[in-house]
Amino acid sequence: MFSRDAGLLQGTVELLVLKRLSWGPMHGYGIASWIETATNDVLRVEEGSLYPALYRMAKKGWIKGEWGVSDNNRRAKFYRLTRAGRKEFEEQAAGWERLSGAVNRAVTADEGAG
Amino acid sequence: MSRMAGDSLWRRWRRAIRRDARLEFEEELRYHIEERVRDHIARGMDRESAERAVLERLGDLDPVREQCVGLMEAEWRQAERRRWLGVSWLDVKLGLRMLVKHPGLTVVGGVGIAVAIAVGASVFGIIYSMLDPALPLEGGDRVVKIQEWDAASGNTQALAVHDFEDVRDALRSVAEVSAYRRSIRNVIGGDGRVEPFRVTAMSAAGFRVAGVPALMGRALLAEDEVEGAPAVVVIGYDVWRNRFASDPGILGRSLRLGDASHTIVGVMPSGFAFPENDRFWTALRLNPSVWARGEGPRLEVFGRLAQGATLESAQAELAAVGAGLAAAYPATHEPFGLRLQPYTHAFNEPGAWVFHFVQLLITMLLVVVCVNVAVLTYARTVTRRGEITVRNALGASRARITGQLFVESFILAGTAALVGLGLAWVALRRLDLLLQRTIGDQLPFWFDFHLSPSALLYVGGLVILAAVITGVVPALKATGGQVSAGLQQLSGGGTGFGLGRTWTALIVAQVAIAVGALPVAVATAWENLLEGGADPGFAAADFMSIRLQLDREDPGRDEAETYERDYIARYADLQTELMRRMEADPSISAVTFAARAPGWEPSDRIELEAESGPSDSGVRIDPDMTNAGMQGDGLSGPVGFRVGVGRVAPGYFAAFEVPLLSGRSFEARDLDAATGPILVNQSFVEEIGRGAGVVGRRIRYARPEAAGDEGDAPRWFEIVGVVSDFPARVDPDQARARIYLPAGPGDIYPADLSVRVRDPGSTGVAAQLRALAAGVDPRLRLDDIRPLLDVNREERSFNRMFSLALAAVTLSVLLLSAAGIHALMSFTVARRRREIGIRAALGADPGDVLRGIFARAAWQLAIGLFIGLFLAAAFFRVASDGDAGLRQIATSLLLVSAIMLVTGLLAALGPAREGLSVQPTEALREG
Fold first, then answer.
1. What is the pTM of this model?
2. In angstroms, what CA-CA distances link B172 with A67, B31, B169, B306, B336?
């Protein structure tokens, strides 16, 4: 799924997509580029994973795809967050924070702690 | 066929969706690739290496493509469903809100539609049950009935013995041609009860046509039909269970049918009542030699279409057989035809078109009701013009708004339909019970009034029709105007959707129809409902009414005359003996008889001799009376007074304790008196004798043949006494004046015995009376034992049900009409609000303005009333044959007119006062 760090948790792509779309509508390529930039190229999402994830999320009713015009004046399909998607994002983000904090605490703990 | 078409449509739709999804995915992917190539180029790669790098990175995309297209397809279908449900759910919610927000319209419109649908569904249920009932037997659709048929008159009849045998032997396309005839016999045996039942003598082949094997023992066999074979009977399941307490050793026991003993050889399974509604089957023994061709008992003939035969081919062959018979026996078979029909169709007397016509009329009733509701809905739609105009301007299409109003009406009609279906269900249940109770044994066993799936389908159609009339038509009308004009008016507050003359026409029509049609209906329903609860004026509850019958055989042609004579003599003797035993019975206080139950005497016309008596030249008829007869009662011949003619035993009035008012009552010697002594009732004295004494005067039948006087001088009857009216009230269709002729045992067949019992509540009365009769002779049958009260009650039950339905329809139409007038009137006056306001602003006297408005409203109502009165008079001529209902009709006419007038004027008052209170500036701005 991820070229450099294959051990990432399932559902991370969905969370990242939701995060990007929480700022406003974006097309598939834009979402992929943002993930790479935002993670300093640590995470690279493949097209073979991104699009099925987008379509699955659309089917779940979290996001909605609509055709629009991109910055360079080309026809592109933009995805935007639905009300259900926004709620989902908040839940997933909170969950991620709890999980990553816990894992982080565990990983960085000294011997004998706890 | 349609399923296949539906299937392929579905597939085509799915393929189209898939193609679109694929195209969309490819376009999205192309954008993605081009952007990434652009990105690489921006970072310094040349185009060729950039494209290569991107394609390498993508790798094999086929599985991804399939996955994405599949997901997209699923999402689209889901969205489609959600859109459908989401939108209509909103409409449903809006519709429900409207029902609550306008309770008046909901109640008035709902009641109207519910009643109309109840009537429609009931009638449909009845018609469907009668028109094309299925014969509930294996392959029942191939069972056919064969009848003699006169093509010219359309009359059918059962076949004579010889013809049945010829048809049976000749016909190839119908297998197992069978026959049956039914007669009523006292069934004695089992638990010892004596009860008259229909006994069916049927060909053994008839059981093979039915294809139902016996539950125990056997069905009838060909050898049972042979003259001299032991008499056997097959009984129905109910008989075995109720009369023989499900005795497992039933086979071989004997059962008496009339005076003949039969051995029980079989029990048929539960529910089997073929060929009509039968419980006892004996072998049909034909003895054609004693009959001339074309004579003898008639046989009901049926069979099963042979393998490969169709109705058409069988009918063609049958017609040829019929033609052969007609040619061979021209003396007796001219004209002669044979007809074959699906079995159950032969039991539908009136033609199908009658049913369809009735159905059409009923559907029209719904349309009339719906048009009324539509007027109300339109008036409401107009008050919502603001909402509609704004929605229209915001981009909601006319179709969308119409659709929403349709859903609203659909909810109203659908809710009303549920209520209507409930009413129909109750009505059909009641009708079914009533029929089962009164004529249940005469109805075919497959007969069942119920709401079939097709009735529900019909009601579904009615609901859509109702929703279209009450929702779509007003919506199209209201959304038809220019939106900009609507918006303009919205800002001014004026009323935009005017119809002017149409409204006036609607008001006039509404009033005219209500005043014209309703009073007769109201009066008819009222009269019938009153009648049902009327006090009969004598101790009817103590009396049992009994039809006394004696079994008849079919003597051959040589013995017919002597048989008939002996039969009458035997009947007279047995009746005398039975009455003697009844009088001696301590539980019976009085016994008498007549030709009909009290109050149900047949009508005829009589002439009253003038008071001066016959002149020298012969007869002088009271000069006034030749014009006094009433028309239209179906009695042809010269005019005369219409009277009920009772033929009663000499002790009849004493048994019923009917007081004698003048003269004398009957005596035994009157039976043979040459003077023809008769009694008359009080109504006769009042109506025909004009209150003067009539004892000693003479009457005769206006139709000489009524007294059996063909050729002779007309017979005179002398009035010897006057009795009170008995019963006190009679059916409104019957003449109140009565004459009574004395009759002895044997003069009337069958006689209607009236037995006064000391304990009418006891349950065993009927069984006790039957045992008494069977003790005199097992062939003497008491067919129809009912409390005398029930004779009247049951005869009127159908009338009552009809009247209740009529009353419900009438009331709902009246309610609707009143609401319709209110809506129309307030609407038209509201349209003139501005004019009223301006006139008031210009200093007109408010009284003058109001008078002007009322004058116009009253004018519209008056035209409606005037036309309505003409219509009412026309209906009255058609619907009434006497002056009995005149007062009620006049009363209801006044009532309906008053309701219309008051409602109309009140409706005008509100908007008129509103108009007067409008500020002049406001009124002027409304333009």
1. 0.62
2. 76, 80, 8, 7, 20
